[in-house]
């Protein structure tokens, strides 16, 4: 196209360096073993669908919604968008969000508070119910789950998860 000299060299240099720098990362991905959290979405969906199938008919006086918002790892974009569209339809006094995340392996845990910088506490009644019926124990998470988006919108919420002995 008629471009020559130093400007063209600079323009070509930047993406070339980026590609060369990414080769070790791609090799690491190719050689890595599967980790327990690799079944994160599948295990959560399977657990929630099984619970809905098992208990849906027994919850006649409840309006149960099953939401699979997606994009959790993308800063909760799926749940934030779902909340934006539907929060006005929900009664804040009668709505509870139970988020199931990484349910495939380990011991059942619940998250008492979570957040990347400042951890937001989950609803004390929900934490108390988990303590009452759970065999596991609560934990503080420095990550985010979809329940954080619901809690941030002013709804009672909690995350049920599973972790190994080292909390991974």
Task: Give a description of the structure.
- This protein is an alpha/beta fold and 168 residues long.
- 41% of the residues lie in helices and 15% in strands.
- It has five helices and five strands.
- The chain has helices at residues 6-31, 40-55, 77-86, 124-133, 146-152, and strands at 97-100, 107-114, 120-121, 137-141, 157-163.
- Strands 1, 2, 3, 4 and 5 form a five-stranded mixed β-sheet that branches.
- A hairpin with a 5-residue loop joins strand 2 and strand 3.
- Helix 3 (77-86) runs parallel beside helix 5.
- The longest helix has 26 residues, at 6-31.
- The protein is elongated.
- The N and C termini lie far apart (53 Å).
- The model has no long low-confidence stretch (mean pLDDT 84).
Query: Largest sheet, if any?
Result: 5 strands, mixed
Q: What best-fitting shape do the alpha-carbon axes yield?
A: elongated
Instruction: Please tally the helical runs, counting DSSP H or I stretches of 4 or more residues.
Output: 5
Q: Alpha-carbon distance between the termini?
A: 53 Å
Sheet-strand content, in percent, reads 15-25%
Number of extended strands: 5
Pick out the low-confidence regions: none
Task: Give the radius of gyration.
Answer: 21 Å
Order of helices and strands: HHHEEEHEHE
**Fraction of residues in helix:** 40-55%
Report the mean per-residue pLDDT as an integer: 84
Which structural category do the helix and sheet elements fall into?
Answer: alpha/beta
């Amino acid at each position: 196209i008629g471009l020559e000299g130093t400007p063209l060299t600079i323009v070509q240099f930047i993406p070339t360096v980026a590609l060369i720098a990414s080769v070790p990362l791609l090799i690491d991905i190719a050689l890595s073993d599967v980790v327990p959290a690799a079944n994160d979405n599948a295990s959560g969906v399977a657990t929630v669908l099984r619970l809905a199938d098992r208990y849906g008919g027994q919850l006649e006086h409840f309006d149960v919604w099953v939401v699979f918002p997606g994009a959790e790892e993308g800063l909760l974009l799926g749940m934030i968008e779902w909340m934006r569209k539907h929060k006005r339809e929900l009664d804040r006094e009668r709505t509870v969000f139970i988020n199931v995340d990484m349910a495939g392996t380990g011991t059942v845990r619940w998250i008492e508070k979570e957040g990347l910088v400042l951890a937001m506490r989950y609803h004390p009644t929900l934490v108390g119910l988990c303590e009452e019926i759970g065999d596991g124990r609560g934990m503080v998470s420095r990550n985010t789950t979809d329940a954080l988006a619901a809690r941030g919108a002013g709804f009672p919420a909690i995350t049920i998860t599973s972790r190994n002995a080292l909390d991974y």
